[in-house]
Amino acid sequence: MQALKERRHLYPDRFVPAHNLQQSRLPVLQQNMARRRLVLFPLPLQGHQTPMLQLATILYSKGFEISIIHTYFNSPNPANYPHFAFHSLPDNLTESETSTEDLTLLLHKLNRNCAAPFRDRLARVMEDASVACLITDVIWYFTQAVADTLDLSRIVLRTNNPSSFMAFTYLPQFRDKGYLSAQGTQLEEPVPELPPLKVKDIPRNYTRHPELNDAMANMLMETSKASKGLIFNTLQELEGSSLSLVRQHFNIPVFAIGPFQKQVKASSSSLLAEDQSCIPWLNSLPPKSVLYVSFGSIAAIDQTQFNEIAWGLALSIQSFLWVIRPGLVRGLDGSVPLPDGFIEMVMDRSRIVEWAPQEEVLGHPAICGFWTHCGWNSVLESICQGVPMICLPFFGDQMNNARYVTDVWRVGLRFEHDSNRQDIEKGIRRLMVETEGKEMRKRAIILKDQASLCVAKGGSSYQALESLVAHILSF
Predict the structure, then answer these.
(1) Is residue 12 predicted with pLDDT exceeding 70?
(2) pLDDT at position 34, please?
(3) Is it the case that residue 372 has pLDDT exceeding 90?
(4) Exposure of 446 in the CB half-sphere (CA atoms within 13 A)
(5) CATH code, residues 23-267+457-473
(6) Whose CA, among 23, 278, 327, 417, lies 20 to 30 Å from 194?
(7) H/E stretch holding 465
(8) How far, in Å, CA of 110 to CA of 202, rounded?
(9) Dist CA 203 CA 395 (whole Å)
């Protein structure tokens, strides 16, 4: 599968001052403080790159100049961020090595291949400007050694949420207790170390190289502890207890400054071309009448499961917008064949696209619910718009996120991967038209309001961001 090979452009290093940012987003630092440069290094996957670029925009608004070091693989488009300096970095990956089918192997190769060129590139940036701090994705674990060599402070961004981050720290212990090899009814057993998780919710990345999983998990935890701080795209009101656990475990400054998307004007960082035609279609439909279905940029299902999802949507008699990207069905890189008779059954109440402008879709009045893979960005975007969810988690932190959506925040329900069309039909109707779904929507609106208040002046995330800025200036 090659779902994320859209762009491999080389961009010249450049810096273009911004003239079009709103005055309300201009620096709030002391007037006599000279602008200082930050270097940010996003991981080249959609769910990691987007929040890093959002964080860069937030920090730019606080008076910092921004340099983005990025790989050739899935490189961002500098035209969308004219106020940043972009520096390209060879990753030495072949086309076949950029496959996301084995994420663990891909991440291992990226860390191995980028170490030397990253150090050279960062050293050259530091020669040209005074760099206050390096901010990297937590998965770029090799960068701690580089920062130490260059005597540069490093802060890490964890693009997942604090609860799943804590679950990753327990992986060696969970393996020793047999949780990771559990099967059948054992998967429904609670995890006493991290309530409310069940054994099936423990983060897992399926790989042909399990030894790399353990080594990488250990490296990213140790290098996070060695960093000067940890940033989360979340809010205190949503995950206060998990944030407390992280602070106790890591003993470094922790900054919950999200939701990022509440603080920055939308700027496309999508690695796939967005089909805007779904917006006029949504405009033609009544409020709270459409189910949005998207399983992210990496997750894949087999043809049988795809067909059950299709027929469940059809039998529900609800309107839906379904993202069917190339690579969604395993073994099919191109268009996915729909079941015979499906289109005829749903053509007057459906729209199918290869990729959608997700934030715009979730904020549309016609959207009633979101059937999601439960990647953290998608969960947070749904919360920010007050949209309840149907959860179908696949790997990594997604099972953890789904547990919080359904059992802690109670703004969604969960499907398992063996759900048949009848189960899917009933679940969709529960969310869309029954009393249970209406109650979920009420709770989702409360969370939406909290997400807005926390970034307003005096809110928890507003204060955390001020603390982060002061922390960076102390280096």
Answers:
(1) no
(2) 52
(3) yes
(4) 11
(5) 3.40.50.2000
(6) 417
(7) helix 460-473
(8) 25
(9) 7
pLDDT tens, 332-369? 877 888 999 999 999 999 999 999 999 999 999 999 99
User: How far is the C-alpha of 300 from the C-alpha of 3, rounded, in Å?
Assistant: 10
Mean pLDDT across 370-393: 97
The predicted-structure confidence for 209-248, as pLDDT tens digits, reads as follows 888 888 888 899 999 999 999 999 999 999 999 999 999 9
Helix pair angle (162-169, 236-250), 10° resolution: 30
Q: Please check whether residue 362 is in contact with residue 321, taking contact to mean a CB–CB distance below 8 angstroms.
A: no
9/3 Cα distance (integer angstroms) = 17
DSSP, collapsed to helix, strand or coil, labels residue 88 as strand
- Given this model, what pLDDT does residue 430 score? 98
pLDDT tens, position by position, 117-152: 999 999 999 999 999 999 999 999 999 999 999 999
SS3 69: strand
Domain boundaries of the chain, sorted by first residue = 23-267+457-473, 278-452
pLDDT at 268: 61
Structure tokens, 356: 């959608």
- Reduced to 3 states, what is the DSSP secondary structure of residue 10? coil
Q: Which tokens sit at 75? A: 């490189």
Q: Does residue 231 contact residue 156 with C-beta atoms inside 8 Å?
A: yes
Contacts of 7 (CB under 8 A, 6+ apart): 74, 75, 77, 271
Task: Using alpha carbons, list the distances in angstroms from residue 198 to 78, 176, 207, 315.
Answer: 42, 16, 22, 31
Q: Average pLDDT in the 259-279 region?
A: 86
Residue 48 corresponds to which tokens in the numbers above? Answer: 């990691």
**Does 30 have pLDDT greater than 50?**
no
- pLDDT of 91: 95
Tokens describing residue 293: 């279905």
Mean pLDDT of 398-413: 98
The one-letter code for the residue type at 268 is S
Phi, psi of 234 (to 5 degrees): -155, -175
Whole-angstrom Cα distance, residue 127 to residue 300?
A: 44
Beta strands in 358-470 (DSSP E): 367-372, 389-391, 412-414
Domains 23-267+457-473 and 278-452 share a fold: yes
Nearest to 237 by CA among 413, 449, 401, 411: 449
Q: Which DSSP string corresponds to 133-147? A: EEEEETT-TTHHHHH
Q: Which CATH architecture has domain 278-452?
A: 3-Layer(aba) Sandwich (3.40)
**Higher-pLDDT residue of 10, 149:** 149
The span from the CA of 405 to the CA of 113, in Å, is 37
- Cα separation, 231 vs 138, in Å, equals 10
